Amino acid sequence: MKRLIPVVGLLFLSACCSPKAPTSGDAGSVEIVPASEVEWQKLNPARGDKSPQAATLWGDRSGEVPTGFLAKFVDGFSSPPHIHNATYRAVVLEGLIHNDDPDAELMWMPPGSFWTQPKGEVHITSAKGESSVALVEIDQGPYLVLSVNDRFDEGERPINMVPNNVVWVETPGFSLDEASPQSAYLWGSLFPGHPNGTFLKLPAGFEGELHSDAEHLRAVVIQGELHLEAHEGAALIPGSYIGSFDRTRHQIHTDEEVILYIRTLGRYSLFRTN
Q1: Residue 16 — φ and ψ, nearest 5°?
Q2: Which of 133, 123, 138 is nearest to 78 (CA)?
Q3: Cis link prior to 142 (omega < 30° from 0)?
Q4: CA dihedral over 33, 54, 86, 109, signed as positive or negative
Q5: What is the CA radius of gyration of the chain?
Q6: Could you tell me if 66 and 156 lie in one domain?
Q7: Does 183 share its domain with 228?
Q8: Of 53, 11, 42, nearest to 171 (Cα)?
Q9: What is the domain count for the chain?
Q10: Please, what is the end-to-end C-alpha distance for the chain in angstroms?
């Protein structure tokens, strides 16, 4: 059975990336996929109409590359026990999701929750609410759904973390208060060239620039509406994806509190301009 655990904070920021509509940044390039334009397909075609829906944001679920996609479940969905060939990480964007051992007590995770599912471990996934949506990412595909008869254990252990277990810390150049950006470490290594994932929380009324020196920066809106100059200032709602490559400067602002999930191979910096 999985457990709720707190996580330590992270003292740096990062951002995200996507496969459509490339636009030019200061030195690199930017790709943007609004949530309203994602293309939904069956996540597990073998289940027919009972299959959840999936929309790829970056990568290729059937390939061997790092991949991020949205998974959508109908109210009352519950999968049979199964395993995956690849470990995945996920963040709840909408609705309520339960993901645990088949005999575990139900623990519904609301938006802003983070969980990991180790490869080879038997589990079920259930959903409650008119529509439940999660961001799912893998480091290497393909992403397969396999029988419990194929189970295996490589020593990884799962985590379920609801929002009140997230530990927010100050970011460089900002104090730790409700009017300042905050970040939280989720996974990975901070050494240059190593992948890592964080939450970045921006307060309402924030105007600034997100500078990336990493090979790539991938960000997905988890909560609120983010305004991005490269998207002509239009609001990017939860499930929207931003990807940048090489040295890139993102000009952003918020009207309400916004939370981003950020995956990067390097560090990035945030500056206030208002």
Answers
A1: -135, -175
A2: 123
A3: yes
A4: positive
A5: 18
A6: yes
A7: yes
A8: 11
A9: 2
A10: 46
